[in-house]
Amino acid sequence: MKIFDALNFGTQYLKNYVSEPRLEAEGLLSFLLGVGREYIIVNRDKELSENIFERYKGLLDLRKDGMPYQYIVGKKHFMGLIFKVSPNVLIPRNDTEVLVEEVLKRLQKNDVVLDIGTGSGAIAVSIAKYKDVKVYAVDISDDALSVARDNAYENGVLDKIVFLKSDLFSSVPKDVKFDVIVSNPPYIRSGDIDKLQEEVKKEPKIALDGGEDGLLFYRKIVRDSKEYIKSSGIIAFEVGYDEAGDVSRILLDGGYGNIEIVKDLQGIDRVVLGKWLGS
């Protein structure tokens, strides 16, 4: 079978299961062959061995059954960088780029940043890549921290990030005060987990489940942050589509002011920021 025929097969195979079947069919085949998409286009008449085609069908089956494309190919583009991803970490979303961009706008040289629930390290690594700051990145999962360290190394910022296994602030040194605390915490309501798309359900539940009302981790982070944040320091959260108002109130009740809400590219309130008013 020729590359052209395999791509047509893959496109038809996925067309009822993904939004961009041709693009994903090309991506999976180029991943399998270890080449760029350009190679596939130029070599559309090249013959594929039966073994390669069977392996290609295996990848198509994984995708058809709801395995996220990014887990199959093992990477995700984010903030102009490439991140390794695995089923041990949440796949970075484009919406989260808004959170990173808002933090980058507010950082000064030599600031100290805490990223809570770092996962793949997408937030921490991006901040360290684009600003001359020190970042502490914490996660409760050893597997996630391993992925995050790999991403820091691959993107050349391993020396700028301190990785800690920590349940929120539990292992964060109390003698370190932060200019910015940033987090994209789990914020899906527990009762909504089973209603998620099948491919989202393949992601780690610990990175999705935000408790009964989706606000559990916002409350905990705001409550405990006051021991770790500098005077006039900033907290920045990604929030669920209907949670900006609730998270703003949690911040206000926790001693933060100057609340800002930033929309994502779809016009949804996606980022909430507050300034610590204590000393």
UniProtKB/TrEMBL annotation:
Belongs to the protein N5-glutamine methyltransferase family. PrmC subfamily. One of its GO terms (molecular function) is peptide chain release factor N(5)-glutamine methyltransferase activity. The lineage of its organism: Bacteria, Bacillati, Bacillota, Clostridia, Thermoanaerobacterales. It comes from Thermoanaerobacterium xylanolyticum (strain ATCC 49914 / DSM 7097 / LX-11). Residues 5-74 form the Release factor glutamine methyltransferase N-terminal domain. The gene is prmC. Residues 96-192 form the Methyltransferase small domain. GO terms for biological process: methylation. Pfam families: MTS, PrmC_N. Keywords: Methyltransferase, S-adenosyl-L-methionine, Transferase. Substrate binds at N184, P185, P186, Y187. This is Release factor glutamine methyltransferase. InterPro entries: DNA_methylase_N6_adenine_CS, HemK-like, N5-glutamine_MTase, PrmC_N, RF_methyltr_PrmC, SAM-dependent_MTases_sf, Small_mtfrase_dom. PROSITE patterns: N6_MTASE (PS00092). It comes from the Bacteria. Methylates the class 1 translation termination release factors RF1/PrfA and RF2/PrfB on the glutamine residue of the universally conserved GGQ motif. It catalyses: L-glutaminyl-[peptide chain release factor] + S-adenosyl-L-methionine = N(5)-methyl-L-glutaminyl-[peptide chain release factor] + S-adenosyl-L-homocysteine + H(+). S-adenosyl-L-methionine binds at G117, T118, G119, S120, G121, D139, N184. Its EC number is 2.1.1.297.
